[in-house]
Amino acid sequence: MRIMVQKFGGTSLSTVQAREHVLRHVKRELEAGLSLVIVVSAMGRRGEPYATDTLLDWAAQNGNALSAREKDLLLCCGEIISATTLSSLLEHEGIPTTVLTGAQAGFVTDDNFGNARILDVRPVRVLEQLQLGRVVVVTGFQGQTENGDFTTLGRGGSDTSATALGAALRAEMVDIYTDVNGILTADPRIVEDARPLTVVSYAEICNMAHHGAKVIHPRAVEIAMQSQIPVRVRSTFADTEGTLVTHPEGFQDVQTGIVDRYVTGIAYVSNVTQITVDVPGGGADRLQLKVFKTMAENSISVDFINVTPSGVVYTVFDSDSEKAIQVLQEIGLKPQSLSGCAKVSVIGGGINGVPGIMARIVESLTLADIQILQSADSNTTIWVLVKKEDMVQALRALHASFELHL
Ligand code: ADP
Ligand code: MG
């Protein structure tokens, strides 16, 4: 059996026209002889009837007191509606289907409701149905605890459902269908001349996703990487094959001249707060420990950490900043904070050791009159922190400076 997993995101299912495109992709692959497992997200975006955010708003308007476990039960409805809708449309075309919830498809998770981790995928029923020649439609974004409670996997979780299922089934391909033409050099909503990439390595896109490129969830990529399942990110609304995500050796199979690039793309995370804690007169070692322990104890995730002999600088999400400041003050520190910042990242496997890349970043931001509040780098990424109002211009300036539109 040649198994393919197709995942359709929210906007790919939200209108009649979009669903017609979905049917087209399904029929094409069936005609090519593949056994299909289709993973779906909830239809549409906030405001549309069964979208995840609409369900959350609904709960907020009605008591606003749902516990995490019950909230997950509510959220699971979004994918169930979209899976059954797709099933009905396929059956109407004479295509036999079986809908399975995350639990029925074999997703076992921990009980961290709202952001559960997949512990195991046991796709027995999926395989059974495929063997009967049926298309299996699976509700993405969800699973079940060993006790039988419904759980959800967190934002972007349907991507993870798709690659985890692909790995468990040893699928020959996982196609992630979305509303853009693949993985681009930057978010096309901000950088208009962003260009689709033909092929990227798991590591490159993992990095981009971790640094904010929301086109695919980083955990989804990690799972695909571990099991070496090829993934394509492609448009529901076109027939182009989009971006192939694979291991670097897989690049040879793809006709491309861009393997040697230094910079793959540019990503951003907005709405972060920079926190500075100084320790006048030394003793910074103990301070660092105190600061980061306090953050961890309060479940505040920290990023962009710079440690110097005189103190620490790091970022938290704006939504966590009030609490972060409060708990630091409670242990006797005097933190300073700057909210409304954005982290802009330049990502590329080839950055390592290439002289002049940082200079180029500083130059292009300086020419655009953008202040760099903080910077850091690793083998594959250079980050700069800027004010949020400068973010769009920073992204465009860097994209142009590295000639990513070419
Ligand atoms: P879906 O509902 O299909 O999962 P998402 O909204 O999660 O769709 O992801 C697609 C969106 O990701 C695009 O509309 C685009 O604005 C955004 N995006 C951010 N960075 C990138 C990038 N580098 N390449 C492509 N899309 C990106
Ligand atoms: Mg998504």
From TrEMBL:
The keyword Nucleotide-binding applies. Residues 339-399 form the CASTOR ACT domain. Pathway: Amino-acid biosynthesis; L-methionine biosynthesis via de novo pathway; L-homoserine from L-aspartate: step 1/3; Amino-acid biosynthesis; L-threonine biosynthesis; L-threonine from L-aspartate: step 1/5; Amino-acid biosynthesis; L-lysine biosynthesis via DAP pathway; (S)-tetrahydrodipicolinate from L-aspartate: step 1/4. PROSITE patterns: ASPARTOKINASE. ATP binds at K7, F8, G9, G10, T178, D179, R189, K214, V215. GO terms for biological process: diaminopimelate biosynthetic process; lysine biosynthetic process. Its EC number is 2.7.2.4. One of its GO terms (molecular function) is ATP binding. It is an enzyme of class 2 (transferase). It comes from the Bacteria. InterPro entries: AceGlu_kinase-like_sf (IPR036393), ACT-like_dom_sf (IPR045865), Asp/Glu/Uridylate_kinase (IPR001048), Asp_kin_monofn (IPR005260), Asp_kinase (IPR001341), Aspartate_kinase_CS (IPR018042), CASTOR_ACT_dom (IPR027795). Substrate binds at T52, E79. Residues 3-235 form the Aspartate/glutamate/uridylate kinase domain. The keyword Transmembrane does not apply. Keywords: Amino-acid biosynthesis, ATP-binding, Diaminopimelate biosynthesis, Kinase, Lysine biosynthesis, Nucleotide-binding, Transferase. It catalyses: L-aspartate + ATP = 4-phospho-L-aspartate + ADP. NCBIfam families: asp_kin_monofn (TIGR00656), asp_kinases (TIGR00657), PRK08210.1 (NF006068). Belongs to the aspartokinase family. Catalyzes the phosphorylation of the beta-carboxyl group of aspartic acid with ATP to yield 4-phospho-L-aspartate, which is involved in the branched biosynthetic pathway leading to the biosynthesis of amino acids threonine, isoleucine and methionine. This is Aspartokinase. The gene is dapG.
